[in-house]
Design brief:
The structure is a single chain. The protein has 551 residues and is of the alpha/beta class. 25% of the residues lie in helices and 14% in strands. The longest helix has 17 residues. The N and C termini lie close together (12 Å).
Length: 551
C-alpha cells in the first residue's frame, strides 16, 4: 500500500513509557440500581455487583466506577446525598461495600466512587441546620440570597431541570440556590468549613482503599460571587430544554474552581503509590478550549476531564476526523486523553447509530489514544428501550415530558440470562428491561462468537496484547467518504484502524507500508481463513478493521 502524503502526525511524541493503571486501563461504569439485585426488591445492590465481578474480569476491563450509593431520599436517584460517608440501605451496608472493594481488588480490579460535591440533598443534616436560621453556623455552607427588589428571585439563573434555580424559604426570608432540583441545594465551596468537610469525606473513602472518584458536575461548583444575570441565549427555541434559555456564563465554570480541583488532586496524589495510583475523573460538559483548563497548570487538576465529544458529535467520518485532531491538538503537555460513548444521562450508542454501527463505534472507542470508559450494557448492544408513561421514574422526564430528555431508557436493568426478569431480580424490576432481553443478554451472547459481547471481549483482549493500542501515539490518516482512519504507533509496532461509518462499501485509504489484517468487526480474520488480501482495496459496509504493519 502506498504512503498517505497528507497523514496528520503529532508535532511531539505523546506515548508514555511507564503509564499509570488509569492511562493504560479501561473503566466500566455501573449504575447500581440496575446491575444486579440480590434481595428481590427489584433494585440492584452492592452484593449484586460483587456477584457479577467475574463478568467484568472476563470482559477485560480494569476498573469499575459505581454511580452514587450514599444515603439519599432518591429524588434524583442518589445524586441528592444526605450522608457523604454512608451507604444507602437500599444498596446494602458498609460491610457489603467493604466486601465488594476487597473482592474487586482480589480480582485485580480498581473501584471508583461517584462523588457529588456541587449539591447535597435538602434532607442532609447540614442543610437542615443551614435553613434553621440566618445566624446558624452552617448558614453559609449553602448559597442564600435576598430577594430582588421586586421580591422575586435574586437573578435569572435557570435550573438544569427547568424553572428558576432559586427557591424561596419563607421561614428565613431568603432564597437558596439549586442548580438541579429544588431538593438539591448547592453547597458553598467558598466557605472554608464546608470545603474541609467535603475533603474529609473524600479522605474517608480513600482511607477505605477506593481507587478514585468520578467528580459530578465539577464545572458547576463555583458561581460568580456577585451573582449577575446570565445572558439570554439568542439561539433558544421551543423544544429546547428550559435551562438553555440562558447561557450559563456566571453560574458555571468560574476561575476559582481550579484551585478546588487542585486541592482534590493533591489529596488523591497523597494516597497514590506506584501501581496503586488514585485517579480523579471530572464530569465537565464544556467546549474543548474550556475543558482543557481542568487538567490544571502543570497538571495539578483532575487526571481525566471527561471528554464527551463522541456522545454529542454527529456520526460522520469527516466531522469525527476533525474532532479527534482538534482534541489531540488542544491537550496540554502531558495531559492524557479519554473517550466515552455513553453514560447514565445520555442515549446509548446503539440507540443513536444502530447496532451495526455500534460495533464500529466499539472499535473506535477502544482503539483511540486515551482512557476509554464503557457504560454497562453497551457491551451487549442494548438499543432504545420504551418506557411506558406509567413506568417513568426520571424527574427530568416528569418535569419536561415528551422532549426526549428522559434518562430512564439508559438506566434499565442489565439482562443476564433467559430466566425470569433476565436474571436481574426475583422481584419486579424498578424499570422495564430491554424488549429483546431473551436474546440480548450476557448468557446468550457469551455463547455467540458473532455477538456484541464477543466483539468487546476481543477488542479488549487486543488492547492488552498490543500495548500500542493502549498507550501508543495516534496519527490521523486522510480518507474519503464514510471512512475514518488513523494509526497507533510506538517504538515496537504500528497498527492502522480503518472504520466505515456508513452502510455502503468504501475505498480503503492509502496506508504507509504493508499491513496484514488483524481483526474485523464483521468477521475475525483468524477464523475460517483470512478473507482479506494484503492489497486490500475496499472496506465493507458497517465494518471496522485493525491492520498490523509488517515493516
Amino acid at each position: 500500500m502506498t504512503s498517505a502524503p497528507n497523514a496528520v502526525r503529532p508535532e511531539r511524541a505523546t506515548g508514555i513509557a511507564d503509564p499509570a493503571w488509569w492511562q493504560a486501563g479501561v473503566i466500566y461504569q455501573i449504575y447500581p440500581r440496575s446491575f444486579q439485585d440480590t434481595n428481590g426488591d427489584g433494585i440492584g445492590d452492592l452484593a449484586g455487583i460483587e456477584r457479577r465481578l467475574d463478568h467484568l474480569v472476563a470482559l477485560g476491563v480494569d476498573a469499575l466506577w459505581i454511580s452514587p450509593i450514599y444515603p439519599s431520599p432518591m429524588v434524583d436517584f442518589g445524586y441528592d446525598v444526605s450522608d457523604y460517608i454512608g451507604v444507602h440501605p437500599m444498596f446494602g451496608t458498609m460491610a457489603d461495600f467493604d466486601r465488594l472493594l476487597a473482592a474487586a481488588h482480589d480480582r485485580g480490579l480498581r473501584l471508583l466512587l461517584d462523588f457529588v460535591p456541587n449539591h447535597s440533598s435538602d434532607r442532609h443534616p447540614w442543610f437542615l441546620e443551614s435553613r434553621a436560621s440566618r445566624d446558624n453556623p452552617k448558614r453559609d455552607w449553602y448559597i442564600w440570597r435576598d430577594p430582588a427588589p421586586d421580591g422575586g428571585p435574586p437573578n435569572n439563573w435557570i435550573s438544569d431541570f427547568g424553572g428558576s434555580a432559586w427557591q424561596w424559604d419563607a421561614a428565613t426570608g431568603q432564597y437558596y440556590y439549586h442548580a438541579m432540583l429544588v431538593e438539591q441545594p448547592d453547597l458553598n465551596w467558598r466557605n472554608p468549613g464546608l470545603k474541609a468537610a467535603m475533603l474529609d469525606a473524600m479522605r474517608f473513602w480513600f482511607d477505605k482503599g477506593v481507587d478514585g472518584f468520578r467528580v459530578d458536575i465539577l464545572w458547576h461548583m463555583i458561581k460568580a460571587a456577585d451573582f449577575p444575570d446570565n445572558p439570554a441565549n439568542p439561539h433558544w427555541h421551543p423544544g429546547m430544554a428550559d435551562m438553555h434559555k440562558v447561557l450559563q456564563l456566571h453560574s458555571t465554570d468560574q476561575p476559582e474552581v481550579f484551585a478546588i480541583a487542585a486541592e482534590m488532586r493533591a489529596l488523591a496524589d497523597a494516597y497514590s503509590a506506584k501501581g496503586r495510583e488514585r485517579v480523579l475523573v471530572g464530569e465537565i460538559y464544556l467546549p474543548i478550549e474550556r475543558l482543557m483548563a481542568y487538567y490544571g497548570k502543570d497538571r495539578e487538576g483532575v487526571h481525566l476531564p471527561f471528554n464527551f465529544q463522541l456522545i454529542e458529535a454527529p456520526w460522520d467520518a469527516r466531522a469525527l476526523h476533525r474532532m479527534i485532531a482538534d482534541y489531540e491538538a488542544a491537550l496540554p503537555p502531558g495531559g492524557w486523553p479519554n473517550w466515552v460513548l455513553g453514560n447514565h444521562d445520555r442515549p446509548r450508542i446503539a440507540a443513536r447509530v444502530g447496532v451495526a454501527q455500534a460495533r464500529v463505534a466499539a472499535m473506535l472507542l477502544l482503539t483511540l489514544r486515551g482512557t476509554p470508559t464503557l457504560y454497562y450494557g453497551d457491551e451487549l448492544g442494548i438499543g432504545p428501550v420504551e418506557i411506558p408513561p406509567a413506568k417513568v421514574q426520571d424527574p427530568r422526564e416528569l418535569r419536561e415530558p415528551g422532549l426526549g430528555f428522559g434518562r430512564d431508557p439508559v438506566r434499565t436493568p442489565m439482562p443476564w440470562d433467559t430466566s425470569a426478569n433476565a436474571g436481574f431480580t426475583t422481584g419486579e424490576p424498578w424499570l422495564p428491561l430491554n424488549s429483546d432481553w431473551p436474546t440480548r443478554n450476557v448468557a446468550v451472547e457469551r455463547e455467540d462468537a458473532g455477538s456484541m459481547l464477543a466483539l468487546y471481549r476481543e477488542l479488549l483482549r487486543l488492547r492488552r496484547a498490543h500495548e500500542v493500542l493502549s498507550i501508543g501515539d495516534v496519527r490521523l490518516i486522510e480518507a474519503e467518504g464514510d471512512v475514518l482512519a488513523y494509526e497507533r504507533v510506538n517504538s515496537n509496532e504500528r497498527v492502522a484502524i480503518v472504520l466505515n461509518l456508513g452502510g455502503e462499501m468504501q475505498r480503503m485509504p492509502a496506508l504507509d507500508g504493508t499491513f496484514q489484517p488483524l481483526f474485523s468487526t464483521l468477521r475475525h480474520p483468524r477464523e475460517g481463513g483470512d478473507p482479506y488480501s494484503p492489497t486490500l482495496k475496499v472496506i465493507g459496509p458497517n465494518e471496522g478493521l485493525i491492520l498490523h504493519a509488517q515493516d
